[in-house]
Design a protein that fits this description.
Layout: H1 3-15, H2 19-23, H3 29-44, H4 50-56, H5 61-77, H6 79-95, H7 101-127
């Protein structure tokens, strides 16, 4: 299963809808919100082109652009939507081992600093 399909399944789990419902033409708000979240993660984390996302979901690229703009607005104005999206994103990162490059670099720096501190302590103990 590819990463886009994983996002869709995770979105279904978080929003408590079926995959069939997500892939349907339904215009119910909760279904559209789930799709919107999938599109956002596909664009921002899978780095998929808008035209590729549109092709995968059998939509026009302008519709995807509209959903991405709506997602951005909802993230700042709808706490419930933001909470569900954050949960989806967290699960996405856990399920497919997504690692943010900047977070990884920061963790490596912290581990190196800790390693240096421990080595310094050991050297001091051996010299005493």
């Amino acid at each position: 299963m590819d990463k886009f399909e994983e996002i869709k399944k995770t979105a279904c789990s978080v929003t408590n809808i079926s995959l069939e419902e997500l892939e349907s033409k339904s215009r119910k708000r909760y279904v559209v919100d789930a799709r919107r979240m999938v599109f956002s993660i596909a664009k921002d984390y899978l780095e998929m082109k808008i035209s590729h996302i549109a092709h995968r979901v059998n939509m026009n690229h302008a519709s995807i652009i509209h959903h991405l703009k709506q997602h951005k607005d909802l993230m700042t104005s709808d706490i419930y939507y933001k909470d569900r999206f954050d949960k989806l994103l967290e699960l996405y990162k856990l399920n497919i081992s997504y690692v943010n490059k900047d977070e990884l670099i920061e963790t490596i720096k912290e581990l190196k600093a800790e390693n240096l501190r421990i080595e310094t302590e050991l050297i001091q103990k051996n010299n005493d």
